[in-house]
Design a protein that fits this description.
two-stranded antiparallel sheet; binds zinc ion; four-stranded antiparallel beta sheet; Muramoyl-pentapeptide Carboxypeptidase, domain 2
Length: 206
């Protein structure tokens, strides 16, 4: 006898659908324990004049267009960064602040998500006091990103309370493209980090 049920079980989320180690994958996990090759360079598309990895470009454009309609006025401050550029950024911070302080806020070359082209930093030039500051989380733009970025396939990658897992202090302005399916699943399961979701080591440098 065939039994009809109205409630279909939710199909299990396939955590192996994309690689977490291939830098071309939208699910790649890059952190202080999992670097990518110095020579890796993504396929690039331009969004408002900034280089981003091709898989993230359309979603980022939609996010920015929608935020413009709401008057949030985001500008891209940083998107794809090459290994060489990240080396310059990091050594600049080491020079000005010393290595221990630099490691809390700036990735060593090969350890930055920005080298994948899947990460983007947003600022709000009309209200710049909180650009690149923790207080960005409390601005209208920061609150909107925390609430809505998943709809576009992005996550706020470095959240409060996750520094020991991600290796970084909270960065409410740093978005990472992971695709709508994973962003939705992270939200549904209330999981703050890719490391916890995929059971991948993070935290400080080895
Ligand atoms: Zn960033």
């Amino acid at each position: 006898m065939r039994v009809e049920t109205s409630a279909q079980p939710r199909p299990a989320f396939d955590r192996t659908r994309h690689s977490t180690s291939d830098p071309r994958s939208i699910w790649v996990v890059v952190n202080k324990k999992h670097p990518i090759d110095a020579g890796y360079r993504p396929q690039i598309d331009l969004v408002r004049g900034y280089q981003v990895a091709a898989p993230a470009a359309a979603a980022l454009t939609r996010l920015l267009d929608d935020s413009d309609v709401l008057g949030l006025g985001f500008k891209i401050a940083s998107a794809y960064r090459s290994y060489g550029y990240q080396a310059d950024v990091y050594s600049g911070v080491v020079e000005s602040s010393g290595r221990p302080a630099a490691d809390r806020v700036s990735a060593r070359p090969g350890h930055s998500e920005h080298q994948t082209g899947l990460a983007v930093d947003l600022v709000a030039p009309d209200d710049p006091a909180c650009d690149f500051d923790a207080c960005f989380a409390g601005t209208p733009g920061g609150r909107w990103l925390a609430r809505e970025a998943w709809r576009y396939g992005f996550v706020v990658r470095y959240r409060p309370g996750s520094a020991t897992v991600t290796g970084y202090s909270p960065e409410p302005w740093h978005l990472r493209y992971v695709g709508r399916a994973l962003a939705t699943e992270l939200r549904r399961t209330r999981t703050d980090t890719l490391e916890v979701f995929f059971d991948i080591t993070g935290g400080d440098y080895p």
